[in-house]
Amino acid sequence: MLYLTRNLYTESDKPCVMYVVQVYQGRVESYYPFDCERQSMKLVNAILLSVDDSLDGCADVAAHFPPSHPLPAKAALYAYELVDGEEGISLKMLL
Fold first, then answer.
1. Dihedrals phi, psi of 78, to nearest 5 degrees
2. Whose CA is closest to 69, among 82, 83, 52, 84?
3. Widest CA span of the chain, in angstroms?
4. CA distances from 79 to 2, 41 (A)
5. What does residue 9 show for φ and ψ, rounded to 5 degrees?
6. Residue range 21-73, pLDDT digits in tens
7. Up-side HSE of residue 1: CA atoms within 13 Å toward CB?
């Protein structure tokens, strides 16, 4: 699945703006600057990339955001949408 995000958080509090994140079976395959709209692309306001695969539903976003450590090279990455709900911000894994 392709996700277009306005703000992609990778390893600092300064987001990458207008990026595409490609996710396959829960893992990030690639991410790159937006160049054109593609079929079945979904718009997501903000995405956080993490090496942790257990953050789905996590409401303690402050513990993981903004990212404080560089993403390891060649590590499996997972993408989480930052969801603003009634009880605050939570993380939802993108599949």
1. -125, 145
2. 52
3. 36
4. 11, 15
5. -100, 120
6. 999 998 999 999 999 999 889 999 999 999 999 999 988 887 777 676 778 88
7. 14
Q: Which residues contact 64 (CB under 8 A, 6 or more apart)?
A: 48, 50, 52, 55, 58, 91
| Strand boundaries in 11-77, DSSP class E | 16-24, 27-33, 41-50
Residue 14 in tokens = 């300064």
Cis peptide before 67 (omega within 30 of 0): no
pLDDT digits (tens, 9 = 90+) for 65-90: 767 677 888 889 999 999 988 888 89
Task: Name the pTM for this structure.
Answer: 0.89
Q: 10 Å Cβ neighbour count for 44?
A: 20
CA–CA distance, 2 with 77 (Å, rounded to integer): 15
- On whether the CB atoms of residues 91 and 80 are closer than 8 A, the answer is yes
